[in-house]
Design a protein that fits this description.
single chain, about 130 residues, alpha+beta, STM4215-like, 2 helices, elongated
Amino acid sequence: MTDPRNAIQTGIYTALNAAGITALVDPTETDSFPYTVFGGGTLVQGPLTTKTGDGGEIVHTLVSWATSPTTAQSNASIGMNALTDRNAPITATGYNIILNRPEFGGEIIRDASEPDSILFGVPYRVRIVVEHQ
């Protein structure tokens, strides 16, 4: 089985952008806030064997960053809703998604490392179990 993390990340990226959330893998200093950053996918358990094929369990951690805590929380909420929307489910080329579950919305991170700004981040995580088509 090929590693499903890139296919899942593409599906998450598409779902977040469709919901109006700017999703970035490697933001630069010129990117405007608010945005959500991928913390990377972890293949937690794999390969899994199901009745119809091989699969795996992936956990993607994301952080919603903004210049206000309210906006960071709001975007994290919108992102979690977008990732679990049954009317617009995440798709991953080459895989069937068996389970898609948000795990948590973390506490607000306050980042004052830049001298001219204070940023706020809200981490959240989604667990996805896939099966290879």
